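Lecture notes, unit on binding sites. The following record was shown on slide 14. It pairs a sequence with pyridoxal-5'-phosphate.
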Amino acid sequence: MKITRKTFDEVMVPCYVPQDMVLERGQGCYLFDMSGRKYVDFTAGIAVNCLGHNHKGVVDVISKQASRLIHVSNIFTNNQTLTLASKLVKLTGYEKVFFVNSGAEANEAALKLARRVAYDDYGEEKCEIISFAHSFHGRTLFSVTVGGQPKYSTGFGPVPGGITHLPFNDIETLKNTITDKTCAVMMEVIQGEGGILPADLDFIRAVRELCDQHHALLIFDEVQTGVGRTGSFYAYEQVGVRPDILTTAKGLAAGVPIGGILTSTKIAAHFKPGTHGSTFGGNPLACAVGSYVVDKVSDPAFLQHVTDMGEFLRAELARLNEKYHVFKDIRGRGLLIGAELNPEYDGKLATLQKLCTKHQLLLLTAGSNVLRLVPPLIITKAVIKEGMKLLERALQDLQAEAQA
Ligand SMILES: *Cc1c(COP(=O)(O)O)cnc(C)c1O
């Protein structure tokens, strides 16, 4: 069968417009397309492939587990699911885990759980959910409606009700909006898709206090910030505020689909047998890889490496910026990095991304004017420098184009 990029347009639902190449293989921080062309990968499958591509340990765990047990459903339990759950509990101090297959499903579970807790303890009036502008929480109808980007939920109505979006980092507005009818506040510690926008420490503390005052549950969506991405295993560790429910996914099984929620025994008790579920969630294959990832990534030396590489990458971006003056701001934590374009490059984000691909550097965008860099956490200084050389060529092209 002859496969080309055109095949996408012929047989795929057009939700995406993938770039021109068709990828075939990866190794470490590199990807290769069907013609053998090599790319430096600063996307890591959207902050997923934390250990890079074709990682020997990951491949070994997958093949070993595949020959033992791939899936049994949740009407049985299995050693791998229990091992990963125990590791997460031990690592974080949360008491209970529920596994799903993606970030959206993790948020869906967290939101349903928050509604059920409020319903059981206070009655059905307490059902309102507060979230923030520019947030992203996934694509199920509930999670996409809670997300603060109307372009993603428009045209799918009627959408679930009782959801209010407030400006991010605005304590006063939250104070004036939250009531005893609020059952949950959902937020990202650093908004990922929205533009690598960090929550202020004061804001995070105020959200925690206001949730406590009004008996609302605080949910941190750590789907993108979790699993070492920001230099601690979860980002909440760095802000001194612990959410009641934490959602995790993306990097947790290094590319094998998985998601989960972490919470207390008291809150978890409201999901009684039959109230929620998942056929694939917590399957032994994904959990075996998850256990391997938790062991690797929670190692303090590994987390220090993420912090160091993040600082190095931001410094390299700043160095390029001194020469080319393209970025208004370079921000983020660990290896979750955003470089916001100067206003004179408004509308040029996709062009710059394409130019990078032309020079064989793959990176992402966030919001309308932010270049997003989320390389594999195992990246080295040498690969960062290699990527920066390619970015420099793309920036030269961008400026040449702007002057033409
Ligand atoms: C990616 C992402 C999601 C959605 O995860 P899926 O696995 O695509 O469902 C939710 N929240 C945040 C913060 C994300 O970055």
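Take-home: The mean pLDDT is 98.
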